[in-house]
Amino acid sequence: MRYALRKVGLFALTLWAAVTLNFLLPRMMPGSPADAAIARLSQNGPVTDETRAAVEAQLGVPDGNILQQYLAYLDQVIHLDFGISYAFYPEPVSGLVATALPYTIVLVGTVTVIAFILGTLLGVLAAWRRGTWLDALPTVGGSFMNTFPYFWTSLLLLFFLGYVAHLFPTFGAYSATAVPGISWDFFVDILYHAALPAVTLLITSLGGWIIGMRNAMINTLGEDYVTFAEANGIGGRTVALRYAARNAILPNLTGFGLALGGVVGGSILVEQVFGYPGIGFLLFNAVIGQDYPLMQALFLMITVSVLVANLLVDILYGVLDPRTRR
Amino acid sequence: MSENTTRASSPSPVGHRPHPAVEALRGGLRAIWGNRKARIGMILLALFILVALLAPLLAPYAPKDNSFDRNLGASAQHWLGTTAAGEDVLSQLIHGARISVIVGFGAGSISTLIAVLIGLTWGYITGFAADVVNFVVNLFLVIPGLPLMIVIATYLQNGGISVIIAVIAITGWAWGARVLRSQTSTLRNRDFVQSAKFSGERAPRIIFREILPNMTSIIAGGFFGSATAAILAEAGLEFLGLGDSSIVSWGTMLYWAQNSNALLTGQWALLFAPGLCIALLATSLTLINFGVDGISNPRLREGSTGR
Fold first, then answer.
1. pLDDT, tens only, B194-216
2. CA distance B52 to B56
3. Contacting A residues, span 33-72, partner chain B, CB-CB under 8 Å
4. Residue A147 and residue A204: Cα distance in Å, rounded?
5. Which residues in chain B are contacts of A31 at CB distance < 8 A?
6. CB contact under 8 A, B148 and A299
7. Please, which of B191, B262, B286, B289 could form a disulfide with B267 given CB 3.0 to 4.6 Å?
8. A99-325 to CATH, choices 1.10.3720.10, 3.30.300.30, 1.10.8.640, 3.30.870.10
9. Which residues of chain B does A295 touch, with a Cβ-Cβ cutoff of 8 Å?
10. What tens digit of pLDDT does each residue of B65-102 get?
11. Prior bond of A102 cis (ω within 30°)
């Protein structure tokens, strides 16, 4: 219990530091949103002082000293009020984020869980049947797929299955003609549009889980207690799953927790290629449109979700591996 | 550890004996070379480095020479066709190797160095100091790499390749440090560390002379891992148009390909080649890792049954 409390305390501290960093980051960088907007305006001719004042008022240039700005920022964060988006003016940032979030969580979350389970099982199998094709195929294939740049896999699948073969839609989360709502047709349409991004994410993330589990498993298979269990005549499958895999999965669980935390921000490139309206695509649009309020809110949210996942993994790890509690 | 003792006892002419570190490196390379997968990786990597070094000699045209017809398919003059701006794709591909190799090795070594220094110290110490380090590393770990890189790159529009290397290194070391920490804290309670401690060894010596050699494979694996990640991250940033889009790299090639609708004009070579190169370069590093794993972890060695 003390272990968990200490972790929660650290979590609160880290949360504060992350929120503060998000405040400081844009202030450490050269230039400001208003300067950037004015620089773009000045390409069309001289900018008057009135125009400058209007731009600054519109973009909500912070006033007061840095402490007042910081307090105002904390107040905003607590109320989840991140202001008005520049790129999607006059939409509030929080509304845009709320619309995009479910797409990413369902798509990337599902794929992450599937990839972890499938990859871990294949890893156990590869280590257990070491030296056979059951080892060679997933290990070599997995490590090769693992090195594919996400966006390239996306581009190729989109090109061959979308543009050339016309098997899958090439853009968006649902057809332009579909009626959003709770209906079977809409559900199928959503799945159809999510198929290619999901396959891309699965292809590129599966290999890591296979290799990680295989190598951890090979280590535990060499431990004395495994040899002892085998010497006692315990069946091969029982030794593999109940003795070796149970211990080998620990390092992979850390990775899984962090991967779950990374779900929110982990698919920027894939979403950009497929025009899938999730958090990643929103961040891309914010970056392209130099939409600083939106960018800051998204960055904060992506950070906080990883932070929460990290806390849960730490606590879980303490339960599963008593050695770390020391 | 056992590697060192066996090598020290191998016969070699006294007086001409190379420095122990050189000998260890040579032994390590030989061990990696002995692994079939790693051998393929090393040949592949050497090929890419060679292409990067000799790019001006190998490329048929200058990478930015846009005097050709646009959107050409493959032909004898242009093996991979031309871009929408009328540049030779093959020449761009060959020159693009330079950026990826530089970014991979540059960012990979910097982040590995940080990971080793912080990870090992963190794993050895306990109590309040460990919590402070935990706090700092967690902070770096929770800030997701790609989004942070994107945000910084947006503020520093066209910062150049050194900015990209710095950003990738700073955002990339925390994971390695965490892995090294957990390994160190397991080793911390092993007998050889305890006996070193009781015989009065000082902490830095225990950490870097007793514990470190047991983690060669993890550290080397971490280096190749972060080099791979750096290559992919750089390509991703360039693909989003956040790097310096005037340089010729595999990432910018894909960026211009997507922006000039290569998907619609059907120039599959332009889409296929740069990504394949990124994947192959990254694969070569991963393959080498198979051999590296075998050096200090005999259980992972090829041919050993592991049981």
1. 888 889 888 888 888 888 887 87
2. 9
3. none
4. 7
5. 155
6. yes
7. B262
8. 1.10.3720.10
9. 151, 154
10. 888 877 777 777 887 888 877 888 899 999 999 999 99
11. no
